[in-house]
């Protein structure tokens, strides 16, 4: 579903918050809602998601520092939860924050608690959006401040891709994206074979990365979270690979035949799978 996202006044925002909160199960709030109207108007904005002119969700975005945007409040009417409203609001917030030349976005969240499914889902939602806790350790009673960098080409491409999808410019199925990726691989191979300029090869590799990102988003995965999992997996395998090399008396693998490298890599994969 496509939602219309627009800016609204503080008064309208408080009315919408009251409507959303009236349908929630009673629980403690992370923020004081009075802050939504006591701060200077030019230091925060209110983004509302609408369906057929009906407001169904709200995001309050503050600018406490020149290079930072902070999510003060995010809520959606129960009947519209799980339908992409929060994601649409977050995307609009990213775009607006980038326009203000913001470099980071933060949010205060309650750590995941097995006894409170709401807090766990909220925390996981922000993780999927690319937010990471500023501190590794926390207790159940604490509020965790999470941060997401906005100054990266990956973010810009994700934002453009999501905006295109919201506009209706999207792939019809996964198979077509995969075919495009295969086609890009062929073009890269051909560019190398024809010894084309480096700029041309770089462009083709960029198209391949774009295709992989499109497939990631189409299948419902956030690219940043997907890359984090890849980093964790590759890091674990490299640690295992170095350990195996040391066991064989190898300080480095430079100059070793490719057959040995493949053998050691296969063993490293086996070891990390067993962990």
UniProtKB/TrEMBL annotation:
GO MF, one annotated term: nucleoside triphosphate diphosphatase activity
SUPFAM superfamilies: Acyl-CoA N-acyltransferases (Nat), all-alpha NTP pyrophosphatases
Species this protein is from: Legionella feeleii
Protein name (record): Nucleotide pyrophosphohydrolase
Superkingdom classification of source: Bacteria
Pfam families: Acetyltransf_1, MazG
N-acetyltransferase domain segment(s): 5-151
Xref: InterPro entries: Acyl_CoA_acyltransferase, GNAT_dom, MazG-like_dom, NTP-PPase_MazG-like_C, NTP_PyrPHydrolase_MazG
Catalytic class of the enzyme: hydrolase
E.C. code: 3.6.1.1
GO biological process: dATP catabolic process; dGTP catabolic process; dTTP catabolic process; dUTP catabolic process; TTP catabolic process; UTP catabolic process
Range of residues in the leader sequence: none
Keywords for this protein: Hydrolase
Lineage, opening ranks: Bacteria, Pseudomonadati, Pseudomonadota, Gammaproteobacteria, Legionellales
């Amino acid at each position: 579903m496509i939602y219309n996202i627009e800016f609204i006044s503080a008064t309208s925002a408080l009315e919408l918050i009251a409507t959303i909160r009236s349908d929630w199960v009673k629980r403690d709030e992370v923020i004081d809602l009075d802050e939504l109207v006591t701060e200077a108007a030019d230091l925060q904005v209110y983004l509302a998601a609408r369906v057929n002119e009906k407001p169904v969700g709200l995001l309050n975005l503050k600018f406490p520092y020149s290079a930072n945007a902070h999510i003060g409040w995010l809520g959606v009417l129960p009947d519209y939860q799980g339908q992409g409203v929060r994601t649409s609001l977050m995307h609009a917030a990213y775009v607006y924050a980038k326009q203000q030349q913001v470099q980071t976005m933060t949010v205060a969240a309650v750590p995941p608690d097995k006894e409170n499914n709401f807090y766990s889902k909220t925390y996981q939602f922000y993780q999927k959006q690319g937010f990471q806790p500023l501190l590794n350790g926390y207790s159940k009673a604490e509020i965790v401040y999470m941060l997401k960098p906005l100054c990266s080409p990956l973010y810009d491409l994700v934002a453009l891709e999501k905006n295109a999808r919201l506009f209706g410019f999207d792939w019809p199925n996964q198979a077509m994206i995969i075919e495009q990726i295969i086609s890009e691989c062929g073009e890269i191979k051909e560019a190398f074979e024809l010894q084309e300029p480096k700029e041309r090869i770089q462009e083709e590799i960029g198209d391949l990365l774009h295709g992989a990102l499109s497939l990631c988003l189409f299948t419902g995965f956030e690219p940043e979270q997907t890359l984090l999992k890849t980093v964790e997996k590759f890091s674990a395998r490299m640690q295992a690979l170095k350990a195996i090399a040391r066991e064989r008396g190898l300080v480095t693998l430079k100059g070793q035949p490719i057959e040995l490298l493949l053998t050691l890599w296969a063993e490293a994969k086996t070891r990390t799978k067993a962990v």
